[in-house]
Structure formats: structure tokens, C-alpha cells
Amino acid sequence: MNVMPTIHTAQSRLTRHYLDKLRKANDSVRRGPGNRQYWHRVIEQDWEQIKQRQAWAASRKADEPEQAHLCAMFTIATSDILRVQLTSDEQLAWAQQALEAAQSLHDSEAERTLLYQAGFLSLTSEKLDQANRYGHQLLAMAEIAQDELSLGRAWYILGTIDFSHGSVDTAEALYTKCIAQFEACRAFGEIPVVWRGLGRATQFRGDYQLAKKHFQRYMDASAAVDNAYGVFDAHVALSGICLALHDYQTAEQYAQRAVILGRAFEHSRVFPPALISLAHAEKWLGKYESANAHYVEAIAAARTVGSPSTISNGLYGLGQSKFRQGDYAAALLHMQEAAEVARLAQFMIRLCESSLDMVYVYIARQELSQARDQLCEAHTIAERIRTPHFLAKTLAAAITLWYAWGEAEQAALWAGLLTKYTAQLHPSLFDMTMYARLEMQLGTIRYSQALKQGEVLTVEGVINDLKTLLANAAHTSANA
Q1: SS3 per residue for 239-258
Q2: The pTM is what?
């Protein structure tokens, strides 16, 4: 007697049973917080069985249509529960298996859903090249199917990649299209995270007040759809924009709340950004020891889950804190590592931040040749991003370097231009007392004349000229 079909039937029935339980829990969680804790406890008790059932369906997805369907549904119908039960990398692995299953079934609707989930999770896991592939595949399929929801989702993925690579204006345009698209098809649950993206793009374009409005919309939209992670993440974002506005007390309050909210999440990837947010605020409030401790804790936690942007951000902030404490050797080491992590991960914005602030560290160490070389590298990256925020930061670093070279007249000329962009200077190592030092060295009349002449310049023109000036300085140094 052949018992294999009976065993197989039992296995299939058991898999459907646990999938149905997982789906029911997911639906209950999605409807609201009422039964959330109950269903999380139920799923936690059955979790080992659920993982075994998903693995069993995934192992047979290539040969058996029924199991391929079950494999796909384990991800499509249960994303809210999986966000709690699995790390981002584990969710991504399930989504990739589900995507292969949908492709084997030639189920284009499921494939589009899973391309988005795989692309979104690739972004979360900071696998940008992989996210880019999924985003373009989704875009092509959405256009053929005239699927408005998938089209907006594809734009979100590709916009986030553009932002990470430093194409801020392109990202902002895609995010704006996303919001209009999701509103048109009434996909309101998709909108919160796009407000976050739009806020980040606007922030690094230098419009901090508008960015703050976008981040507040992110928080409000997340609360409206009961997205606990979105509310947490919005606190982190609002803390950051308050730093840009030099409102350090409010930044600290948002960050402290983010830390409290972050402790409620199971996975360690969520918590380090909140700690770094708090450390940033503490640093600019002069609470260096507390800031340093939070940076170190956050960096260590981020390393365990492999989050390059968080690691780079933490190292960069720790370097700033060490600089302000006068420990230039430690500041340089931390910033160099921050830049290298960002470079390997292709996070141009993080790389530009670290590269520019390293100029000040070299100047403080009286290593002006290294400062010049560092400014050359940072200038190249800032030109690629080319937003007022980074152009102003590059100009500020150039003023400091030229002053250190004894070229106060040129530094004052540029300082006159920079006065129009001081609102763009997110907290960095540029010392605003530079204006007083220039006036003292040049005298009030010469200083005022230089400032007035500088006001008619354009930041784009100066940044273009700076490349030649740096190259000439390098040539002069080499022949000296």
C-alpha cells in the first residue's frame, strides 16, 4: 500500500491550516490595535510550526502548483505579522521565495505584489542594487498591466534609490508623483512612507520648514492607519529636522520619545536610529559623554544587523562629538570609517557629510595638504548631489581652508556669499565665529567691502571655480 499521497495530503492540509491562522492574525492586526497582543501571543506559540510549513511549501514550489500558491501566500497575505516575527533579511528571503513561486505560476498580479515587497525589503536591508532591479521589473510590469497601485510603488522604490545615490531632485519628483497616484487610487495605507521620503529629499535640498511639514504629515498619516513603526520613525525624522533648524531642545524631546517607542519593537534594526537621533541632539547640547555612549551602543547594535547607513551615521556623529571635545585623532578615525562604509554602500549623502567634515579635522590638526585633498574629494561628491545644502557646506569648508592658508581676503569674499545660505547649514563643524575672525584680521572696512562683493556672487559659480582653485593649489604645493 502506498502511503505517500496520504502523507503529502496531510502535510498540505497542515500547511493550509497554519497559513490560515497566520492570515487571520494578520487581518486582525491590520484592522486595529484591539486584538494585537492576543494574536501576537497566538502566533508566537505556533511560530516554529509556521516556519516549518513555509519552508515545506517553499521547497516544493518549483514542482507543485498548490505548494507554489501556498508559498506565495505566506508572504502576500501576512506582511504585517511578518514585520514583527522576522528580521528584514528574513522577510526578504521569504519574499524572494514567494516571488519565484508566483513566477512559476505565471500569476502576474501576485508577481507585481511580491516584486514590490521584495524591492521594499531590499531597501530596508540596504541592498540598493537588488532593490533597483526589482523596482525596474515592477515598473515594466505595472505599465503593461496599467496597474496604478504598482506603478506608484515602483516610483517609490526608484525614488528612494535615487535619494540614496544623491539624486535628490529626481527623488523628490518621483515621491510627489507617488502621493498623487496613491491618493487617486485611494491607497491611503501606502502614503505615510512616501511623506517620509519626500521630507528627506526636501531636507537635503535645504528647505527645512517644508521638510518639517512633510515629516509631520508622515506622523499624522501613520497614526491614521495605526502604523506604529511609522509613528516611531516620524519621531526620528522630526528630531533630525529640528536639529537642522537648530532647535536642539525639541530635537532631544522627539528623540527621547523615539527611544521609548523603539523599545517596543522586537528587532534590533529599529532601535539604533533612535539612539543615534538622541545622541545627535545631546552632542549639539554639549552633553558629549552621554552622546558618545549612545553612539557607541547604536553602532554596535547596527553592526550586528548589517545596517550600513546607520553605522555610517553613527560613526559620523561620534566623530563630530570627538572633534568638539578636542580629540582630533579619534574624530578623524571615526569619520574615515563613516566615509568608507558609506562609499561601499553607495550612500552618497552620508559620504558627502563625512567627507566635508573631515576637512575641518585636518585643518584643526594643521594638516592643510590633507585638508585640501579632502576638500577636492568632497567637492566632487557635492557637485554630483548639487543641492543648496551641500553646496553651502562645501563653500563653508572652503572658507575655513582659505582662512587657514592666510587667504583672508578670498575667504571673506566667499563669506559674503555664504551669508545668503546660512539657513542651509545643517549643524556641522563649520564655526560661525569665522566671520568675527575674518573681520579682526582684515579690519572692519576691508571686511565689509569683501562681504559686499561676495553677495553678488552665485554659489554655483563659486563651486565651479573652486575645482580649478583646488587643482592650482595642489600644483603649487607639488612644485614647492
Answers
A1: HHHHHHCCCHHHHHHHHHHH
A2: 0.87
